Amino acid sequence: MVGRPGYRFVRHDMVDQLPAPLRFGPFDAVFHLASPASPRDYQRHQTATLRVGASGTAVALDVAERCEARMILASTSEVYGDPQQHPQHESYWGNVNPIGPRSSYDEAKRYAEALAFAYQRERGVDVAVARIFNTYGPHMRIEDGRAVPTFCWQALHNEPITVFGPGTQTRSLCYVDDTIAGLIALATSSCPGPVNIGNPEELTVLQIAELIRGLADSSSPIELLPASVEDPRRRCPDISQARSALGWRPKVEHVEGLSATLAWFRECMGREDGPVKTRRGEHL
Length: 284
What we know:
This protein is α/β, with parallel strands linked by helices. Helix content is 39%, strand content 13%. The strands form 4 sheets. Strands 1-2-3-8 form a 4-stranded parallel β-sheet, sandwiched between helices. Strands 4-7 form a two-stranded parallel sheet. Strands 5-10 form a two-stranded parallel sheet. It is a single-pass type II membrane protein. This is NAD dependent epimerase/dehydratase family protein. One of its GO terms (biological process) is D-xylose metabolic process. It is found in: Golgi apparatus membrane; Golgi apparatus, Golgi stack membrane.
């Protein structure tokens, strides 16, 4: 984006009122993606996570209303909690602990969805909600503790790859380019959602660790650690609505996406501004 005509980067806390030029546009679309997203971050900043899900979403919706713009809310598969339905369809209401250690993020996003559709029904705001499943790729923060960047860094350093729990819990990994394509497809459609944006190919965490180790040609052993509290056992999207309403599906295979991610971490290894190293962290 840097260097493109009209691009402007403004550092701002979304829970506060936006500067005047950003409040009135004109804008065709407002994308609201601001939120801590890794368990390590949102468990460390629980009140901030809840505030951006509430106040930050209201700020974005108010801008969309003033500008008569389409508002695209980045929600999450975490609204399904530890699901009892597989794969997860958008009609599934979820299985969420509203006061548990993950609740600040789960409930912030559930509230944000409720607020978006309230603005749609009461004020006529054009909203679209994307429920994004596990996304990965270059430029991830290694210190956020999520599985893919942690495993990549450990494998490239031949350190033990740390898997929390038995490794049988599953995740849906979607490469960042595919996720962005899904968000753009939603933004340019008339579909309000919610729409699942994710890869329907289910992998166990142990399979992810083994795949990354192989692609990195690493000698790292895999070390099993005690399970994280309330770690979802399965995570897999039903993307039938994304296919039919948006004409979208993920295209990047796991080997291609993880290879590109590993290549980026290799490039960073010798740089002073490279990712901060962490050996153990909470995984999604």
